[in-house]
Amino acid sequence: MLKSLYSEAIGKKDYIQEMIGDISETSINIEDKWIDRHFSKDVKEFKVSAGDGSIHKRNFLGFVFYAIATESLVYNSGFLNKLEYSKVDIMRKGNSTSNRLRNYMEIYEIKNGTKTIKEFNPDYYLFDGSIFGHLIMPISMENDIPEDKKIELINLSKNFLDISVQNFKVNIQSNYLENKFKEEIKEYKKYKPIFYLEYIEKFLSLAKLLENKEKVIAISKTSGSTSCFDGKIPDLAIFSRFTKKTGYSLPRYQEVSHSIKHVFPIGDEFFRKLTFTIFYIRLEENKNILKVELPYEADYNDISQVIDVLLKYSIEGYPYLLKKAHDDVIIKKKDIEQLSQIVGLYEKTGREMLN
Questions:
Q1: How far apart are CA 328 and CA 319, in angstroms?
Q2: Residue 351 above 60 pLDDT?
Q3: Whose CA is closest to 50, among 315, 309, 282, 325?
Q4: Rounded distance, CA 241 to CA 243, Å?
Q5: Average of pLDDT values for 85-94?
Q6: Taking a C-beta distance cutoff of 8 angstroms, is the pair 106, 131 a contact?
Q7: Which of 242, 240, 238, 246 lies closest to 282 in space, CA to CA?
Q8: Which of 52, 105, 170, 339 gives 325 a disulfide partner, CB atoms 3.0 to 4.6 angstroms apart?
């Protein structure tokens, strides 16, 4: 590490501690937003499932080698089933490589969740992360494509991509369209429509998952949302700072049509009709606060049952199936190096000269 970084840290110590102190001492009234509640795990059994995904890449001089893994677990009366899918491939380097690979992993996670619900019909599916976050994020490369080209792309691709989604295939189906569109779309190289098609596939997949919206519980360990307190400090940080006991926040309802201004490339009417129920919860005293999203307008009984599910199948304040799925699918640096050697990639990465 550079000596200048040590000097910078020493020089900023008092300033950073003062800023942390200001945040910590901020007085916020949470009494009208938080309910302390003693929870009991003595509740009925549910058929519960959960899923997660992972991605890792290794850079070579002319391309990126990547690996994706996703797993869904289903627990029912002492029996554990699982669905897992993986992908290894290469991608040419470009400005959008990281976004595209992230999108690939999300497609795999979403499709595997939908397939799990189809095959095992669980009472609930625990989704890792924020579904609302998928809807908020603008589509990469969208502004670079003229409107007439977008319409042309959707008309040419929708049926092909939708068949894959409806047949519950866990793959990146849009990849198969690239060669076809090079011939059918003028100025293909200029607009790079494959990027746009991959996001269309993601939204088709997400719409299919949300056909089962009352089975879906999205769980986030982190969140930057400030909707509860309308301040600069995230709601999750405030609830973590000013509560220690078990309990949950009063739910708030967020309509997609009021929150998101952009037009969805596909399924716009479907997504705009959605209302999300969002609340925060601490399942065990002094453990982390979790953010919960239900992609429907849940009433008190719905929320109470969701809390029962989370309590029944959590350890140390976090859903066990989500933790196990995460631990199973994580791809480490040594894994991606071994996988690249298995497929015969020994080309220089460009970093050897730094060793």
A1: 15
A2: no
A3: 325
A4: 6
A5: 90
A6: no
A7: 246
A8: 52
Half-sphere exposure of 152 (CA within 13 A, CB side): 14
Q: Which of 110, 126, 212, 123 lies closest to 164 in space, CA to CA?
A: 110
d(C-alpha 165, C-alpha 143), whole Å: 26
Euclidean distance between CA atoms 66 and 45, whole angstroms: 39
Task: Please tell me the total number of residues recorded for the chain in this structure.
Answer: 355
What is the spatial distance between Cα 99 and Cα 114, in angstroms, rounded to a whole number? 23
β-pairing, 63-76 with 79-92?
antiparallel
* Paired tokens of 117: 């619900």
Q: Which two tokens stand for residue 315?
A: 């350890």
Least confident of 40-49, 75-84, 118-127: 40-49
Asked if 191 and 257 count as a contact pair (C-beta separation under 8 A), the reply is no
Angle at 205 between CA 200 and CA 206, to 5 degrees: 100
Q: What is the pTM of this model?
A: 0.89
Question: Strand 290-294 relative to strand 216-220: parallel, antiparallel, unpaired?
Answer: antiparallel
Q: What pLDDT score does 191 carry?
A: 65
Q: What is the token pair recorded at 151?
A: 């319409």
Q: Are 54 and 329 in contact (CB under 8 A)?
A: yes
Distance CA 100, CA 199 (A): 9
Q: Which residues pair with 253 in a beta bridge?
A: 277
d(CA 46, CA 325): 18
CA distance 103 to 202: 7
For residues 125 and 325, is the Cβ–Cβ distance under 8 A?
Answer: no
- Rounded CA-CA distance 280/152 in Å is 43
**C-alpha to C-alpha distance for 326 and 320, rounded to whole angstroms:** 10
Between helices 147-166 and 193-209, what is the axis angle to 10°? Answer: 40
To 5 degrees, how large is the angle CA 131–CA 133–CA 137? 130
- Quick check: 284 and 38 in contact, CB under 8 A? no
The residue among 141, 130, 184 whose CA lies nearest residue 160 is 184
